[in-house]
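FAQ: What does the model actually see?

It sees only this:
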Amino acid sequence: MEFKNILAVRDDRMGDFILARPAIRALQGAFPGARLAVAVSESVFPLADPVLPGCNVISPNFSILKFYSFLRSEKFDLVVFFKPRLGTAVAAFLAGVPKRIGTGYRGYSFLFNLRHYEHRHKAERHEAEYSLSLLETLEINKPLHFETVSIDETEIRKVSKKLAVDFSKNWIAIHPGSGGSAPNWPKKNYLDLAEMLSAEGLSILWTGNLEELEGMESVGISLAGKTEVWDLACLYSKCKLMIGPSTGPLHLASLVGTPVMGLYSPIRVTSPRRWGPLGPKVKVLMPTVEECRCVSTSCRRGDCMERLSVEEVFRAVSDILKESSEPVQAKLPL
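And it is asked to produce this:
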């Protein structure tokens, strides 16, 4: 199959987009002569545009009618729904896009004429691999390859000036919020960990919103509510390590090549097997309890994340900081 005008859709959260990026790049590589547009959410656009060279990144914050008109005017011959939604699927169907790829397990899957049958909720493999497997309907079979990116120093200096942060220090970034996507480590534990790291001469940089960082001001510098997504990318790229739960900023730090420490729950649907950070310098810790099938936001044990001790995380952080800081994968210049 040959296509000249392709649209890829992943218009939800930052972490979801980052984990779909390998599949988008595979799609781009499979059709080098095609025009590839990528639809992302408004909040993700400032990141997606620079990390997808050669793609036309758009943020079509449209009504369904406007999205239908957009599809008609752009004359796409293929739409790949990495994140399916009823409204956008209807718009693509009515716009007469010749090939429409999506899951075969939704009530509206009849709107797709190239369907992929795989249940993601089983969490049998990584989210990035699920996105890649969607392309098998196009006979694209690529192994997972996660490319890190580098950011121009001019961009980093702008963010340093904006946030009044001296990036020459040995910063450890901690992002204690999860956005409610999974059970999280207790807030007090993050603070206790920060105190231990600070005692070792490391500088602590807190990222997150005002609610997530309330009460964290006693150690390090808090950037509560001060950062946009591109600010975070520049910021994390200059840190020695980023620590956080299963959340978009963790994947963002890995994308820019920074070592990351992810703290994950034992719930199967939110496990690192499906949602863990990718890249050459990642480490994940989980409490030593059996994997469970609880809902994504709460666990029937009630205290599983508390079983992951501050001392255990501190030791793991110390180990990862001792490892080589040299990149082991080629970075793509932005």
